[in-house]
Sequence to fold (658 residues):
Amino acid sequence: MRLPRSTLFGIGAAVVATVVIAVLPLFLSDYHRSTGATVGVFFTAILALNIVTGYSGQISIGHGAFMALGGYTTAILTHDHSWNDIATLPIAALIGLAAGLVVGLPALRLHGVYLALTTFAVALAVPQIAKNYSGFTGGTEGLALPTHSGLWLYRTSWLVAGIAFVFAWLLLRGRTGRAFRAVRDSEIAAASSGVGLAVYKTLAFGISAALAAVAGSVYVLVNNFVNPDVFGLTLSLYILIGAVVGGLGSLWGVLVGACFVELLPIGLTTSHVSSSQLVPVVFGAVVIAVMAVVPLGAADVLRAALQFGSRTSESVERPLGTTEG
Amino acid sequence: MAAVSFTRGRAWSIPSVWIVWAVIAGGCLFLVIGSIESSLFLQQTISGLANGGIYAGLAVALVLIYRATEVINFAQGAIATFTTYVAWQLIAWGLSYWVAFACTLGVAFLGGFALELGAIRPVERRGSQLTVVIASIGLLILIEGAIGRIWGNQVKFMPAPFPARIYHVGGAAFSLQDLGTIGVSIASVVVLWLFFQFTKLGLAMRAAAVRPHAARLVGIRVSWMLSLGWGLAAALGAVAGMLAASSPSVLLQPSMMDGILIYAFAAAVIGGLESAAGAVIGALAIGVTLNLLGSYVSWITPPLLLPAAFVLMLIVLLVKPSGLFGRTRTRRV
Fold:
């Protein structure tokens, strides 16, 4: 069996990335290890968003809400029912899956901007609801969770991210992934080729939400604390920025996107460039500049570099929203 | 521009504009009867309308930009907050409220114009709508950071434009603040409508938004019209921001308009995103509904008002996926 060149390259890149990520914590302080763990959380969350937005073409600005569900599941189970925290992850995934299917149903009737704003609404509503039912969620005071060492967090976070990545890769390269892409590129063509629109669009939302919920669980573990503000609007926006900067419709950009949204602000804070007051100003400006220079994200740059190297004309996947006229 | 805001087939769009108007008329009738029956109800309706007026300014600003470029501008609220800080600064320097108000409108217009030119146009040239949306989110982060940098994160107090007078009619008490807010926001939307309807520049801007290529053929500089649209939207947002900052329930701080922007989104979506009148109706409906829910339904506590606005929005969208006054468009294959 001959694997295509792009697959070989992909496997090679994955091996290199895995080795680097596995070895990296040996050279980091405990504080930086937990920063690395947060990058892992963003990796999983951006991967999740990419499945629904990049592959099945449904824009979601609300993935912070699914993260909040997972986070609160973990927090409540460990805090009130003294569960082992790893054991809560599958439960979080199941709850996320259910929530994703529920949100995916109205999404069947909404397109484009309307879907974007509806998911945005969900993202804003969930923290408010958490604030309201404070007996259950701890309200604004929040819930505290057991602390872990930075190394444990780093390993857990990246192990989860790795499993999510392999899962997404297997899912997207097969029949389901083809169906997702068909729905993204043309719903009518997909439907007339026998792809069930309702099934696959809802499925994409469900799977994506399940992964996002697990990311939220790990996020809560890394912070060892949860309150509604942890899952505020900023989180959803950062995930979306990460997904677009990394490149929609590509799994390789996800790592770049995760590093961008987590490490760039931290890097700005610790650099000599500025006082911390200026960080959001610089970060916002960089986001705009990146959009002006590489509108299709890091994956596009990678793809261009690869093609320039190999000079093969592979069929280039068309990510969301690149059609003109 | 084929990418966004398509709705599914015609089967669900059967409720025509007439049914929409009937529902709106029914709502108005309910409010009038309630107001005659109870003075508390009347009072809550008026202050709901005042809130709605504030949302309306920002919602129409969103619609302006959406109509021209099919982009949702996430930075609209932050721009409004920034200009409100400018007004606060001018007043702190000794200008009277209304002079500062007028100067701020000018600053907002130029600022909006410059933002389109400097930040949005370079992105728009190569990117998709999603790219521009991300750029507007970047702008949101940038502007809120800049406000914190320039004016600090402490709460500031904006003087009220209207004397703190209360009128008693029957058993109900109206504050001049509420009535003035309704008046100013409605007036600003009407002025904008007159501009679009009866001036040559307004006509050119509408042409550029609806048929960019044809507009270019008759000699309209479409890109300048877009910048102009951003300027006008920023000025309208500034009105909303200044009115909001003067209201007793809102504090002037960098994130002031975040919540209001959300209500404005919901209002614009309810109205159909392309219709300024729809956005105003949506905004007033949200303002009144939330105020009445908050005062009459005991289990709806303040944190639940935001979700309530979205439940309202979702109900409208599920019945009519393109909003109350949105065009039902066929989808290109």
Notes: The longest helix of chain A spans residues 197-223. Chain A has a mean pLDDT of 83. Chain A touches chain B through 49 residues (CB under 8 Å). Residues 69 and 213 of chain A are 6 Å apart (CA to CA).
